[in-house]
Specification:
This protein is mainly alpha-helical and 303 residues long. It is built from 20 helices and no strands.
Length: 303
């Protein structure tokens, strides 16, 4: 891998590095051993680190996109290489905020890839404080992407926000501003975005003591129940059921669900999902979630 890296850093004009970077990205994605070798060689060279940093701020979106794909794959499959990613993405001061800047990039594919990179960084419990809290406007910029005009950006942003919501170290006040946007995304055109939005609301529901009232104001329980019962995609329905179980730990949300006759609707859904469909099979996990929700609401109903 070293010849490719050295060629990019020392021998080629910047405009000529597109093909080597694309090849390097392809090799990294195809072989985990290549990841280790590439990262070790890159981390040992300040010239390579400086070059990669320059690529992040390049005016060439193709080169930047290739690097973001490479970094995302490293973050996804090799958490032991997070220190390497921190050197490139974390910077040494508040003025250096590559991720925040890339979330506002004019090219939608760059915004989407940056959201995806963030989402994979946030899968690791220790990466949020070490990388992301050094960039004060980062979370706010990520929340803006939930309302992006491009559907792939919204999909990636909902994934990243869901992972951010899972971290106790992420600020509840800032994340609270995501609730109305995530609720709207439950009707997004892309099923994966709807599923991500449901998962994110469920993660926010783990902090129901802080965000429960906001979830109610945004009608998240109403919409999640509707999605659980009516979405055409089974994965989205199940994601909504999991989210309902999470947010239903809040007593006021339990009361809202009871007012919506949630137990009756969930019982009907469980009955339907326990039956094989034409060309399909029963959905035991969906039925299980329904039954647990009904059980959770039953003591409330009897008081």
């Amino acid at each position: 891998m070293q010849p490719l890296e050295q060629a990019c850093c020392h021998h080629l004009p910047f405009s000529g590095t597109e093909l080597p970077l694309r090849l390097l990205c392809h090799l990294v994605v195809c072989d985990e051993q290549v990841i280790d070798q590439t990262v070790r060689e890159a981390a040992a060279s300040e010239h390579v680190i400086a070059f990669l940093t320059t690529v992040l701020f390049s005016d060439n979106p193709t080169i930047t996109a290739n690097l973001l794909s490479l970094l995302t794959h490293v973050a996804r499959v090799c958490p032991e290489h997070l220190p390497f990613l921190q050197r490139i993405l974390g910077g040494s001061g508040v003025a250096y905020q590559p991720l925040t800047r890339l979330l506002g990039h004019w090219e939608h594919s760059i915004r989407a890839k940056t959201c995806n990179l963030l989402g994979n960084l946030l899968r690791h419990s220790h990466s949020f404080p070490q990388v992301l809290q050094n960039q004060p406007g980062l979370l706010e910029s990520l929340l803006e992407c939930l309302a992006d005009r491009d559907e792939n950006v919204r999909k990636a942003a909902s994934f990243a926000v869901g992972n951010a919501a899972y971290h106790e170290s992420s600020p509840a006040g800032t994340l609270g501003r995501a609730v109305p946007r995530l609720t709207r995304l439950l009707s997004d055109v892309q099923a994966k975005t709807r599923c991500n939005a449901a998962s994110a609301l469920g993660n926010l529901g783990r902090r129901s003591a802080e965000l429960g009232d906001l979830l109610i104001q945004s009608k998240a329980p109403h919409v999640l129940l509707e999605v659980a019962c009516r979405d055409p995609q089974a994965s989205v329905q199940e994601g909504a059921l999991v989210a309902l179980r999470a947010i239903s730990q809040h007593p006021a949300i339990q009361q809202v669900l009871l007012s919506l006759r949630a137990s009756e609707k969930l019982a009907a859904l469980a009955s339907r999902d326990s039956q094989p469909t034409a060309g399909g099979s029963p959905r035991p996990s969906s039925t299980r979630h329904c039954k647990k929700l009904i059980h959770l609401l039953a003591p409330v109903h009897s008081t």
